[in-house]
Amino acid sequence: MSQNNPIQDRVDQMLLKWTLAINTPNVKIVRILAENDDKQMLEAYYQYMLAIDTNQQDFVLILSAPFSTQKEYAVTLLQELEEEINNWNNAKIPESIKFQTITWKADYSLENVDNPAHLLIENLNSFANYLQPEKKIKVSIVLNINEISKKDAINWFTNVLNTNMEPHLIFAINDTTQYPIYNDLAKAYPKAVYTIVPEFNMDAAVEQMSALGDPTATETPYRANLAKLINGVKARDQKKVQYAAKACLDIAVKALKKDANWLMQIVTVYTILYNDQLGYKNYDDAIYFADKAVETAVKSKGLIKPEMAYRLVGQTHLGRGALYQLKKQKNNALNDYEEAAKAYAIAKDYLMQCESLRLAGYMANKMSLKNEATQYHLQAYNLKEALGTDLVKSSTYPLIVLQLLKDYNRNSFLSDAQMDTDMKPIFGEQWKEHIEKSGKLTKKIKQ
Predict the structure, then answer these.
(1) Residue 408 and residue 402: Cα distance in Å, rounded?
(2) Rounded to whole angstroms, how far apart are CA atoms 202 and 206?
(3) Interatomic CA distance for residues 334 and 324, integer angstroms
(4) 181, 170 in Cβ contact below 8 A?
């Protein structure tokens, strides 16, 4: 039996709503009122509409020019339209698709001082008639405006609706249920503005997608329950979290008898659980699950590939260390950061080894263990060759250099001259200024 793709089902349902909207008499603007979480799905739907092999019944064009002012917006949209036409004319189209070069040009002389939208509408009327002179097929223009004030939005589209639009020209605009900005426009023009409310429900779609596949394969029910677990955490539904977590662990423990790699999935579940409890500030419960994650990771040594096992060990110690830090159990946190650094060193994950040493140094300083802190920072500092220039610049490595600059204890091990020799090739002649700036920019990073 074939299985329906839940994502495609939602796209098809949306396409039906879209088709009904654009074919409703007198509609000039289709307002898509969606949840904030549906933004990515809505963008995917727009891309679907752009495809040349879909079943939709209109010509669709997406314009994403940013809104600046009422007057300039029309110009920037027309400039983007001409760019899109140029892209079309130079695109490689399959021979099976009927293709014609578009020779239409915008006329920027059609301005109206009383209505800034007039320039755009007159040109789009011309463009729509060029494409569909018989006016039997709709020309739909999606205005993908990311940032616009409510006042500007209402003013602009009121001006649009006060022009003479061709009957086969349609606009589409985005709105959100959390922060709707077009409610007043829809109320003022109930016949011209048609509101679609998508029913994407992506959390449910992800769960359904996860359940697709061979029902006899262990991965299928595990993926489905993992999706339920993640959605339960997101919805703060403890009952769902507990049920889905138990299901995931039961499946993973059973599968573990045949494949030790399932240990990684068990760690994943415990990690999700301790992060969930962290969200409720239930630190003791969070540490309980973090303990389970560490225990499972340690068991993986000798059972799965070494680099994977030791990364897992490093990851879980780092996570538990952060929880101990929140609980102000400094000694426990320091021990975990040390163990993480050792594990990442064996895994040759130098970036995470460096970060673990930085955190160990931070914690040692908090415990007034100045000599130990210096040694942690020096170990991290000496990873610069292993990291490479790009990672040194883009990671928290500059924070380590900054700490050593301020640390008088390091002079016995690392001189100012040596630091100058080391850092100039990476950060330039003014490397100290660069390091200071990096420190200021990253002060808000949680230790």
Answers:
(1) 12
(2) 6
(3) 9
(4) no
Taking the C-alpha atoms of residue 216 and residue 120, their distance in angstroms, rounded to an integer, is: 57
Number of H helices, E strands in the chain: 20, 5
Based on C-alpha coordinates, what's the Rg of the chain? 29
Rounded to whole angstroms, how far apart are CA atoms 92 and 99?
A: 10
Does 48 have pLDDT greater than 60?
yes
Beta bridge partners of 171: 29, 141
List of domains in the chain: 6-200 (3.40.50), 349-447 (no CATH)
DSSP string, 59-81: EEEEE-PPP--HHHHHHHHHHHH
In the chain, the largest separation of any two C-alpha atoms, in whole Å, equals 86
Question: Tokens 């654009």 appear where?
Answer: 22
Averaged confidence pLDDT in the chain: 86
| Token digits of residue 7 | 């994502």
- Top mean pLDDT of 9-13, 218-222, 429-433 is at 429-433
Q: What is the pLDDT of residues 144-197, one digit of tens each?
A: 887 889 999 999 999 999 999 999 999 999 888 888 899 999 999 989 999 988
Identify the bridge partners of residue 172 per DSSP, sorted by sequence position: 30, 142
φ, ψ (nearest 5 deg) of residue 103: -105, 5
- Tell me the two tokens of residue 221: 């029910």
Confidence of residue 108 (pLDDT cuts 50, 70, 90): very high
**Measured between alpha carbons, how far is 388 from 76 in angstroms, rounded to an integer?**
43
Q: Please report which confidence band the pLDDT of residue 445 belongs to, taking 50, 70 and 90 as the band edges.
A: very low
Phi then psi dihedrals of residue 171, to 5 deg: -105, 150
Count of other CB atoms within 10 angstroms of residue 112: 14
3-state secondary structure of 194: strand
pLDDT of 317 above 90: yes
Pull the structure tokens for residue 335.
């021990």
DSSP state at residue 116: T
pLDDT given at position 144: 87
Q: Which of 243-252, 385-394, 429-438 has the lowest mean pLDDT?
A: 429-438
Task: Supply the pLDDT for residue 447.
Answer: 42
Measured in whole angstroms, the distance separating CA 116 from the mean position of its chain's CA atoms is: 36
CA–CA distance, 145 with 159 (Å, rounded to integer): 16
pTM, two decimal places: 0.59
Q: Is 195 helix (H, G, I), strand (E, B) or coil?
A: strand
